[in-house]
Amino acid sequence: MSEIQNGTEKRPLECRTYTVNDIAVILGVSQARAYSLVREDLFKSVRIGNAIRISKRSFDHCLESLDL
């Protein structure tokens, strides 16, 4: 895990996004299905070059609102 230095204090840098592979693993679905879910705009995502990053807050809220 990366660290960020604030003055003299070092603390772990918390990642605030998931990758498509992360959500595939979390949901237990294929990468193709995870990409499909991103295209359905169920949660906030952003494309940075070729990479897609999904907001953890948005994804987690979507997951909690599902009736499983």
TrEMBL record:
Pfam families documented for this protein: HTH_17
InterPro entries linked: HTH_17
UniProt domain Helix-turn-helix: residue ranges: 18-65
Official protein name in the record: Helix-turn-helix domain-containing protein
